[in-house]
Write a structure and sequence with these properties.
By secondary structure, the chain is mainly α. It has nine helices and no strands.
C-alpha cells in the first residue's frame, strides 16, 4: 500500500498547495490595492485581514478531521490534494468506497480509478458554476421577488435534500444494525455510526438554541467544528459499546 503515500503524490500535492496559496496572495494584493484606491485606511484593512484569518481557523477544523479520516483509506497525499482545494468528507468517502467496494482489493490500478472518480465527480460543481450559476441565481432572485417565503422554503429544501442523501445511509445502517435485520458485514459499526450522527445533530441543535437565545451570532463560526469534534470523540465510546 506504499503507493498511496509515494513521494510523487506528495510532490503533486505540494505543487497544488503552492498554486492555491499563490492565488490567495494574488487576490490579497489586488484587494489591498483596490482598498487604497477607495480610500480605506491601512488599519481598517489590517483589522479585516486579522479578523478573517482568526475566524477561518476554527471552521477549517472539520476539513482537517476529514483529511485525517480519509487518509486512513486512500493515503495522506491524495486526501490532502482533494480537501485542500475543493471537496467534502461525505462525497469523497462515498466515491472512494464505491470504487473500492466494486473492485475489492485496492491495487494501483484501482487506486487510479478512485482518483479519477473522485476528481471528475467533484469537477461538476465548478463547471456548473461557470455555465449555469448566473442563470440559477437569477431564477432564484425572480422567485424571491414574487414570493420570498416560498424562495426560502425552496433553498432550505434543496439543502435538506443534500443532507438526506449524505446522512440517509448511516441512518439506514444504524436502524438495521439495531434491529438485526441485515448481515453484520453490511451494517458493520452501524449502531456507532447512527449514534455519532445523532450526537453531531444534537450538538448543532444546542448551539442553535444558544445562538438564538443569547443572540451570540459569533458562535456560528464555532458551532460546526465543535459539534464535529464532540461527535468524533463520542464515536470512540460508541464503537467500544458495540
Amino acid at each position: 500500500m506504499d503507493f498511496m503515500n509515494s513521494a510523487f503524490l506528495y510532490v503533486i500535492g505540494a505543487a497544488i498547495a503552492v498554486f492555491v496559496l499563490a492565488q490567495s496572495v494574488y487576490f490579497l494584493v489586488r484587494a489591498v490595492k483596490r482598498g487604497r484606491e477607495l480610500g480605506i485606511s491601512g488599519k481598517a484593512m489590517k483589522d479585516a485581514a486579522v479578523s478573517s484569518a482568526t475566524f477561518s481557523v476554527v471552521p477549517s477544523v472539520p476539513i482537517v478531521l476529514a483529511m485525517m479520516t480519509l487518509a486512513a483509506t486512500i493515503g495522506a497525499p491524495f486526501s490532502w490534494i482533494r480537501l485542500s482545494v475543493i471537496g467534502s468528507m461525505s462525497y469523497e468517502t462515498v466515491a472512494a468506497g464505491a470504487v473500492a467496494g466494486a473492485a475489492g482489493d485496492i491495487t494501483p490500478s484501482v487506486y487510479a480509478g478512485i482518483m479519477w472518480v473522485m476528481t471528475i465527480g467533484i469537477i461538476s460543481g465548478p463547471v456548473f458554476n461557470i455555465f449555469g450559476l448566473k442563470k440559477y441565481q437569477n431564477r432564484l432572485a425572480l422567485i424571491g421577488q414574487r414570493n420570498p417565503k416560498w424562495s426560502k422554503i425552496l433553498v432550505d429544501a434543496l439543502f435538506m435534500g443534500i443532507i438526506a442523501v449524505m446522512g440517509g445511509q448511516y441512518i439506514a445502517k444504524g436502524i438495521a444494525a439495531f434491529a438485526g435485520t441485515a448481515a453484520e458485514k453490511y451494517v458493520l459499526n452501524g449502531q456507532a455510526q447512527l449514534l455519532t450522527l445523532l450526537t453531531g445533530a444534537a450538538l448543532m441543535g444546542v448551539f442553535g438554541l444558544v445562538i438564538k437565545a443569547a443572540k451570540a451570532k459569533w458562535l456560528e463560526n464555532f458551532a460546526l467544528p465543535i459539534s464535529m469534534i464532540g461527535a468524533v470523540a463520542l464515536s470512540v465510546v460508541y464503537h467500544g459499546m458495540f
